[in-house]
Amino acid sequence: MTQPSLAHATDHGRMYSRSIGGSPEVPSITTVISQEHKDMTGWAGHMATSELVNDQRLAGAIGSAPELRRLARQASSAAERFRDAAAARGDRVHHYAEQVALRSLGLRDTAAAAREVLSEHAESKFADRFDEWWELYGVTPLAAEVTVWNHSLGYAGTLDLVAEIGGRTCIIDFKTKGLTRDGRSKPLNESVVMQLVAGMQGEEMLVDAASGEWTAWPYGEAPLLLGVAVSEAEVVAAQANPTILKAHWHKFWALRQVWEHSRTTATAGLALRPIAPPPATVAPLTPSTSPGSAAD
């Protein structure tokens, strides 16, 4: 994932400041969404097993416990390596998309260099399909990689693209996707709807990061929210269903509360502390020595 100029990696996830050099103040949209736990252990186990059984060294390792352990250790990180490689590929594709938008806006761009980087990684087809989609949909960019801030709930995020398509203002989020077994683009995750609706609810947009200049968010009047899956075979655009946006916004609101309470408990101090056994019980007085007894 790319790192916008005002974003900071913190112990509480990615957070945003109001200007370059400023302190982190609010969580990012993706940090808020990540509060929803997703169990990936099954996928991680599948990736590790697949890498191990397809390793050409496995047959020669049979009977050698040290060699089998070495292969198993390497395979155990397969999911992590796949995730990191996919993230790096996504950054390259997103960068190319941003440069195409900047070029269309008449601003300084490095689209040619970005395409060359994709070519060096054998990823030119992503750029080819993206260019086809851009022309087919008649995209007219309004703003690229625009950072928004919501004061009411307390979060910020960076949107891939705001554009006009078919006479409608669209907020667009690009997702780089692999291919299914039949050679089609893998589908978008529904969490993209939360990401888009949170972007739509921006109250300010960044004008200048160095000075910390912001202006009112001008694109909140019922824009179309589009998730766009970019693959080597095709680009598939999908609109967030307008009838369910409120439900996804409420879910995002709840996850923002989870983030806040998690941060509060993490900084509140020790949750558990050791406790000593109680002191020994003092033996009760006997009748002969108790106050007011006949012995007195």
Protein architecture, described:
There is one protein chain. This protein is an alpha+beta fold and 296 residues long. It contains nine helices and ten strands. The chain has helices at residues 29-33, 41-53, 58-61, 65-76, 78-104, 111-120, 124-136, 191-200, 245-266, and strands at residues 7-10, 13-16, 26-27, 140-150, 155-165, 168-176, 204-208, 213-216, 224-230, 235-239. It has a seven-stranded mixed beta sheet with strand order 8-7-4-5-6-9-10, with helices on both faces. A hairpin with a 4-residue loop joins strand 7 (204-208) and strand 8. The radius of gyration is 28 Å and the shape is globular. The mean pLDDT is 89.
Topology:
Layout: E1 7-10, E2 13-16, E3 26-27, H1 29-33, H2 41-53, H3 58-61, H4 65-76, H5 78-104, H6 111-120, H7 124-136, E4 140-150, E5 155-165, E6 168-176, H8 191-200, E7 204-208, E8 213-216, E9 224-230, E10 235-239, H9 245-266
Parallel strand pairs: 6-9
Antiparallel strand pairs: 1-2, 2-3, 4-5, 4-7, 5-6, 7-8, 9-10
